[in-house]
Amino acid sequence: MTELGKKRALGFTACAVAGSLWGCGFFFGKIALAEMSFPYMVLYRFLFAMMPLLPLLITHRPGLNRREWGVLLAASFLGVPLQFLIQFHGLALTTVSHASLMVGTMPVILAVGATLFAHERMDAVGWMALAGSTTGAALIALGGKHHAGAGEATLAGDLLVVLSLMIALFWILFNKQLMERHSAIVVTAYGLLLGTLMLIVWVPVHYGMPPVTRVSVKAWLALAASGVLCTATTTLLWNWGMTQVPASQAGVLLNMEPLIGSLLGVFVLGERLGPSAWVGGVLILTAAVTLTTRSKTRVREQMPVT
Fold it and tell me: Alpha-carbon distance 296 to 161, whole Å?
């Protein structure tokens, strides 16, 4: 295997591990949500995530210029407070299984984003995969109840998860742009730091001080795991992997997240998926695999600036 081949293999491996660990995020989040509301859960998740990243802030100087700091600030706002507050508000209204399956739309969202913003062009197979994934997401969302009881899926919750994924698209593209000139460690550590600082300001002001004494050991362990494993570790692995492989090809490995998350929801939390959700999940996963393995994309030439 050539040196380039080894780097690509390591890049795909890093993205696959990241996707698998992300798949545990909804599971740990649901445990914490049993004892606190979603804003506090998100705040604690990122506070735990920053603990292993603090040494990296000392050993790695950012070296960003003013424009790049602006891009990182925008990426941090989109990728941390905005994305996660919306996503876990959605999780509070739906099930781990439904939320995880909705994440299966992300590879297609990423491919469309690359088409619109990174000057790539999808072929007919790609657009067919997009249609299949959209149909699958609709089947899952419409399979949820509009007014469900505790522990049941809802349309509102599913749609909030999808909205958060659309926001995550820009976080990924902004980070990839920054990593063309800076290391994945710098972009990850300083990006998550900025996002965590935003949460520290926003959450207490708008929701009050987070609970401390009323939280069980089980919830603290779930928060620590979601922060260290499902946030700090995953973001480092994913960002580094994205420097080795194209975003559209790495996107299929995000399907590890809905796979792991759905299995945890069904077999550990005892959730149930209706027939339409199973069909929708298969459509989403099939579309994502087809898009990233069979579809061809090429970069459009940009018009020269005169």
Answer: 28
